[in-house]
Amino acid sequence: QVAARVRNLTKSYGSGDARVVALDDVSVDLEAGRFTAVMGPSGSGKSTLMHCCAALDRGDSGSVVIGEQDLTTLKDAALTRLRREEVGFVFQSFNLVPTLTARENILLPLSIAGRKPDPGWFDVVIDTVDLRPRLTHKPNELSGGQQQRVAVARALISRPRIVFADEPTGNLDSRSGAEVLSLLRAAVDDHGQTVVMVTHDPLAAAYCDRVLFLADGRVVHDLERPDREQVL
Ligand code: ADP
Ligand code: ADP
């Protein structure tokens, strides 16, 4: 089963001499129930690919299908719904709301949509990210690792088809980073979720089932369970 099907996706920024091709005819299937890493040099198109797949941005041509829906042809209202209900996103910089508690931040995607979590699911998520004693704290009362765990919980709370994480360990020390990677792994192994993560860290890629390498807006390698030497 495929969680996101990308076909001939092309996107450029700017025009004339300043035109930059960020994605150049990318086709890839992101399978459901797997943890995929996206690696490659800075500027190779990793963030653009994630943003187009997560309905945060649109390609110029080609298609991205999530579930039965082609993001490239959806109207804005349908895109907004898909972004809220069918995908989760974790940013390198956490992006928590500073005035809300951890609990309120985690529930935010549901409160915006006027929904409640599925019975039991809030507890599953909280236990997965190990945040129960911190639920009443505001972001500035949490460590970086705890804030990122809140951000991961927020991405999981609506049980999206697919969770995208853009360098989720980029601002964390190695221990906190390992905790975040373990819980993304657990989301896949224990709860059948689908995770796609941009990373520069070969150790992070070692948590994944598959590693895609981008260069100049193209997929140049696609490895199944690579060993260490292949990602270094
Ligand atoms: P990566 O995530 O691999 O660093 P990006 O997807 O961020 O790559 O960027 C791919 C290319 O597109 C780079 O050359 C980058 O400078 C350019 N780019 C990305 N976003 C924008 C933007 N909003 N405006 C102009 N150029 C952009
Ligand atoms: P990363 O490489 O960590 O993915 P970047 O620093 O390339 O992140 O990009 C951070 C943000 O800035 C992204 O939202 C991207 O779209 C935007 N961006 C990247 N390159 C450019 C650019 N040349 N001009 C304008 N915005 C850009």
From TrEMBL:
Q: By its UniProt entry, which Gene3D superfamilies does this protein fall under? A: P-loop containing nucleotide triphosphate hydrolases
User: Tell me, what is one Gene Ontology molecular-function annotation carried by this entry?
Assistant: ATP binding
Q: Which UniProt keywords apply?
A: ATP-binding, Nucleotide-binding, Transport
User: Which residues does UniProt assign to the signal peptide?
Assistant: none
Where do the ABC transporter domain residues begin and end? 4-232
Q: What name has this protein been given in UniProt?
A: ABC transporter ATP-binding protein YxdL
Q: Which gene does this sequence derive from?
A: yxdL
